[in-house]
Design a protein that fits this description.
heterodimer; A: Aldehyde Oxidoreductase, domain 3; Aldehyde Oxidoreductase, domain 4; 3 domains; 6-stranded mixed beta sheet; B: 332 residues; Uridine Diphospho-n-acetylenolpyruvylglucosamine Reductase, domain 2; Uridine Diphospho-n-acetylenolpyruvylglucosamine Reductase, domain 3; 5-stranded antiparallel beta sheet; FAD binding (chain B)
Chain lengths: 749, 332
């Protein structure tokens, strides 16, 4: 166990953020901030109906307004080569077609981009946009999830793929649920929730030549954005440059290349100038995905002493009419606890809305809200302590894949969390604890998140002055990627972190996955580890060639590093400075590129991160207001690279989970198929006053099998389970089980 | 945003004249609401008359009343010694509203004119009688969790508008019987606070009785014995920086344990700050007690009516009234 402030065993325990000063002084340049002479500004015009077609677009007044360069729509778009030409008679896009911006007259959702004004200034563009009149032919739309639930079906992509994990799943006897000694069954609803990073999505698109495109874009993967744009505009990959060095939060909203990005690229082509597009807050609700509205039915059967005998979990998620967004909603239920009889079903409901996307802890945050709430309901029904119930059903190996875990310290997490929180002071009976006129509730929940590692490359360059540049086309959407990578390199090379620069967010750098699925540390961290190791070996080779250096016959594994010097062993020999190695060989630099990728271990072990959250809430019996008073969170994510940034990431996940539990809801008026909560006055995320003391703990034991650094990702698991822990605490305080998030005061009155 | 002319007069007279000569001109002070409205295309003034250079920032004790200049910032008023000593209810209400940054920009006069936060008002894709009279009220059968339970008329058909006034300050000023002082080309006009904001009636587009071309110059608060037993109680979806679901301004003048005078106003329940005259009357002469407070809350709620999503206010409002009175009386 280690408190998440620093680990004294680490050589650079809590390296400050390498870009922290740039960020807090405003010196960091975000996508919308790159200066260009001749920069033009774009404003999107979006559909006010949810389904139908555009009859006409009257842009005459806008086109002649001051400063206007172009009004773009499907009527005059230069066209995206990959879309092909419109096939006549025009037909609505079939399921599986990514939305094609300014392509044809069809409307698929309210808020869909239908036109764009490009002008010399943002003000001129905004004004001219108000002058464009779009005439629609409406058709009856369906956006109401609950009213249409009976139309949900197995996704066509799942029907086609017999090995899809979203196929109907039955382990053991699916009917066992009916004969359970004790059974609870309940339905849980999560409304549509939006990522809403503080930095809105933004892009500056620049055509450097007819076949050369550069974009400064907010996204979570420069390489995938590069690939997507190259494919869309049929350009050689190397002709597309994507620059995304600083990202002001994303939480999943930047995983895809969205229509607005393509629209800005089209506009830059049309006006032959660099074009900037920044989404207004209201457009952030319909342009960059969301956590889908999801309804889940769970039943758990158990013996009277709390041993699970059967679990059924049915989940239905919302998607658009043109794409199928699948997420892990029901998958955790198969692996989380020991249970002989488990059935899961996953369905999608196509509605006249834009396509959802992954949002922090995608699927698992949703599914674990339901599963961990249901466990709490069962614990109450059995009069068993909720933590004890989890321990009784702990899975010592993966019950789904029948494989050993690569590592699992969930029991340690439970123990640490319970001790630090003071769980033993919880009175079993709900509605019994009170303080200062408030109802007090203690709740807890487990968390898990699958391990993801992707092939990743990194380059390391040692310069003559002893400084090191490490590069990889990875991202930093906030967790502190550059800091963690600098720390890995510093440790591996024995170089002061101040002498290391880590470059990221540029598609010209060595291949790396996008920042998603908590895969950055496992993938890119491994690549940085590998490239530093390779650099060390190269330096050894160079050192061996220096007469009298003392490195002859030294094995690579015996070499040690410290203070920018190479030592033949861990003993006290003077070693040799990297700078002297280069000087001797008259080299200005030494450069190495390495790739690191997963291997057969994936088939030998089941790999997950685990954790738990403990929450105390106070609920006002007068107003129904819920205030979270304290949180203890503990995660087992293998080795912790940087305690400071890891702690921040855990805190961020808890804050997101509190928002999910108590506030966040994108409410739609189904008469219009349109959101009504499209600003921060109506879409609530937590403010400082909502966030109490959050104590973060890590088990901090390297996972021996996942990768060379023994570290799993942390971003997603930090939020998984938080909403359930809050809801369980609310039940404990009030005796009221709220199964429909968010838990607002009206639901508790 | 439509291009506009901008000028910054330095005298009240010049400001009023600047507006009088341009029918589609608007005053701007803190801009914390007007700029939002302009960006969303809800108002498109040809001319903005910036009044920040006018000498209207003072907070002074006058004979029998405190005068607060219309340009006094929310944050300055909330922290002012005169306000803290004589009208702590006002300070509490101000501090319950918006965020520190907004309070540093927002002014007293502007706050009185803050438009509703009804989402249907802000999005031009929806019908809205307040924005576009005659187009209909989308909230009536829409998502009306935040909407009114008082003050809409159903005499001549469905209510025209069920939006609520979003200001915390207004609720306190209503309870404190303030007077709004305005200037026009003819001179000064004094509007009792109860008459300043309107109910929607057949003109839901009009929030106040301020006439075109009039400039708010000050708010006067009469001296009153409400320095001790006051409480501004605000219920919201998160701990700070949220518009109230329901709020209560409660002020009591106690003689030993007996209520000599009571003031009560509700926020978040009507098109205007909702003063509870009947409940106040009922409390006078009563001892401080849970029974009296419960009875007051019952009286207050007599004419309340809820819609599909705001029925919780029928319980939340009386609970909040009782709680505010309890806290104001200093019993727990």
């Amino acid at each position: 166990m280690a408190n998440a402030h620093q680990n004294p065993a680490e050589p650079h325990p809590s390296l400050d953020r390498v870009d922290g000063r740039l960020k807090v002084t405003g010196a960091a340049t975000y996508s919308a901030e790159y200066p260009f002479e001749n920069l033009a500004h774009a404003v999107l015009i979006t559909s006010t109906i949810a389904k139908g077609r555009i009859r006409t677009i009257d842009a005459k007044a806008a086109e002649t307004a001051p400063g206007v360069l172009a009004v773009l729509s499907h009527m005059n778009s230069p066209g995206v080569p990959a879309y092909g030409s419109v096939k006549l008679p025009a037909e609505r896009a079939p399921v599986g077609t990514a939305f094609r911006v300014f392509y044809d007259e069809f409307i698929y959702f309210s808020g869909q981009p239908v036109a764009m004004v490009v002008a010399n200034t943002p003000e001129q563009a905004r004004h001219a946009a108000s002058l464009v009149h779009v005439d629609y032919e409406s058709e009856k739309h369906q956006t109401d999830f609950e009213a249409n639930l009976s139309k949900a079906a197995v996704a066509t992509s799942v029907q086609r793929n017999k090995t899809s994990p979203f196929q109907d799943y039955d382990r053991g006897n699916p009917d066992a649920i009916y004969t359970a000694e004790v059974k609870i069954e309940a339905t849980y609803t999560i409304p549509t929730q939006h990522h809403q990073p503080l930095e809105p999505h933004a892009i500056i698109a620049v055509w450097e030549a007819d076949d050369k495109l550069t974009v400064y874009d907010k996204n979570q993967g420069v390489k995938s954005a590069q690939g997507n744009l190259a494919q869309a505009f049929k350009l050689p990959r190397e002709n597309v440059k994507v620059n995304s060095k600083f990202i002001g939060g994303a939480f999943g909203s930047g995983i895809r290349v969205w229509p607005h990005t393509v629209a800005a690229v089209l506009a830059a082509q049309k006006v032959n100038r660099p074009v900037k597009l920044v989404l207004g807050r209201e457009l952030m609700f319909t342009s960059v995905g969301y956590r889908p509205f999801t309804v889940q039915k769970i039943a758990i059967g158990a013996t009277k002493d709390g041993q699970f005998t059967a679990i059924t979990h049915e989940g239905t998620g919302q998607t658009s009419t043109y794409e199928e967004h699948l997420e892990r909603t029901i998958l955790a239920t198969r692996a989380m606890y020991v249970c002989p009889n488990v059935s899961t079903r996953y369905r999608l409901l196509n509605l006249d809305v834009n396509t959802p996307t992954w949002m922090r802890g995608p699927g698992d945050a949703t599914g674990m809200f339901a599963l961990e709430s249901a466990l709490d309901e069962l614990a109450f029904a059995l009069s068993i302590d909720p933590l004890e119930l989890r321990l009784r059903n702990h899975a010592d190996s993966d019950p789904e894949r029948h494989l050993p875990w690569s590592a699992k310290s969930l029991k340690d997490c439970y123990r640490i969390g319970a001790e630090q929180f003071g769980w033993k002071n919880r009175i079993l009976e709900p509605q019994t604890m009170k303080a200062d006129g408030m109802l007090v509730g203690y709740g807890m929940a487990s968390s898990l998140y699958g391990f993801h590692r992707h092939p990743s490359k990194a380059k390391a360059v040692l310069l003559a002055d002893g400084s090191v540049v490490v590069q990889s086309a990875t991202m930093d959407i906030g967790p502190g990627t550059g800091t963690a990578m600098t720390q890995i390199a510093a440790t591996m090379l024995g170089v002061n972190p101040k002498k290391i620069r880590f470059d990221l967010g540029d598609s010209g750098l060595p291949d790396a996955p996008g920042q998603n699925g908590s895969s950055t540390i496992p993938s890119v961290g491994s690549a940085v580890h590998a490239v530093c190791k390779a650099l060390k070996i190269k330096l050894l080779t160079l050192a061996v060639a220096i007469p009298g250096s003392g490195f002859a016959d030294v094995r690579p594994e015996d070499v040690t590093v410290k203070n920018g010097r190479l030592f033949p062993s861990a003993d006290s020999s003077p070693g040799i400075a990297y700078t002297d190695i280069l000087k001797h060989h008259k080299l200005t630099q030494v450069e190495v590129t390495e790739e690191s990728k997963p291997g057969a271990e994936r088939d030998q072990y089941s790999m997950y991160s685990f954790g738990c959250h403990f929450v105390e809430v106070h609920v006002s019996p007068v107003t129904g207001e819920v205030r979270v008073k304290r949180v203890v969170t503990c995660a087992d994510v293998g080795k912790i690279i940087n305690y400071k940034t890891a702690r921040s990431q855990s805190i961020g996940g808890v804050v997101g989970g509190i928002g999910m539990a108590l506030m966040e809801e994108s409410a739609m008026d189904h008469r219009y198929g349109r959101y009504v909560t499209t600003d921060f006055a109506s879409y609530h995320i937590p403010v400082h006053a909502d966030i109490p003391q959050i104590d973060v703990f890590f088990v901090d034991q390297p996972d021996p099998y996942v990768n060379p650094i023994g570290s799993k990702g942390l971003g997603e698991i930090a939020i998984v389970g938080v909403a359930a822990a809050v809801a369980n605490a609310v039940f404990h305080a009030t005796g009221k089980r709220i199964r429909q998030l968010p838990i607002t005061p009206d639901k508790l009155l | 945003m439509k291009p506009f002319h901008y000028l910054r007069p330095t005298t009240v007279k010049d400001a009023i004249n600047a507006l009088a000569s341009a029918p589609n001109a608007r005053f701007i002070a803190g801009g914390t609401n007007l700029i939002d409205l302009m960006k969303r295309g809800l108002v498109a003034p040809e001319k903005l008359v910036d009044i920040n250079s006018l000498p209207l920032k003072k907070i002074e004790q006058k004979a029998g009343f405190v005068r607060i200049g219309a340009l006094a910032l929310n944050s300055s008023v909330a922290d002012h010694t005169i306000i803290a000593a004589k009208h702590p209810l006002l300070a509490q209400a101000l501090k319950a509203g918006a965020s520190g940054q907004l309070r540093n920009m927002a002014t007293m006069g502007g706050n009185l004119l803050q438009r509703t936060r009804c989402p249907y008002f802000y999005d031009t894709a929806f019908p809205c009688n307040k924005r576009n009279p005659g187009s209909g009220c989308s909230a009536l059968e829409g998502i009306n969790r935040l909407h009114a339970i008082f003050g809409f008329s159903e005499k001549t058909g469905p209510p025209t508008c069920i939006a609520v006034n979003p200001s915390d300050l207004n609720v306190a000023l209503s309870a404190l019987d303030a007077t709004v002082v305005v200037q026009n080309t003819q001179g000064e006009r004094r509007i009792p606070f109860a008459d300043f904001h309107r109910l929607p009636g057949d003109r839901p587009d009009r929030d106040t009785t301020l006439e075109a071309g009039e400039l708010i110059v000050a708010v006067d608060i009469p001296d009153a014995p409400f320095a001790r037993n006051v409480h501004y109680f605000k219920v919201r979806d998160r701990a700070s920086y949220a518009f109230g679901l329901v709020s209560v301004a409660a002020a009591l003048d106690l003689d030993n344990n007996r209520i000599k005078t009571a003031r009560l106003a509700l926020g978040g329940v009507a098109h205007k700050p909702w003063r509870l005259f009947e409940a106040e009357k009922m409390l006078v002469g009563q001892p401080v007690s849970e029974t009296a407070f419960r009875q007051a809350a019952e009286v207050a709620m007599r004419d309340a009516k809820a819609f599909e999503h705001n029925a919780y206010k029928l319980k939340l409002a009386p609970n909040s009234i009782r709680q505010a009175l309890t806290l104001a009386a200093g019993i727990s």
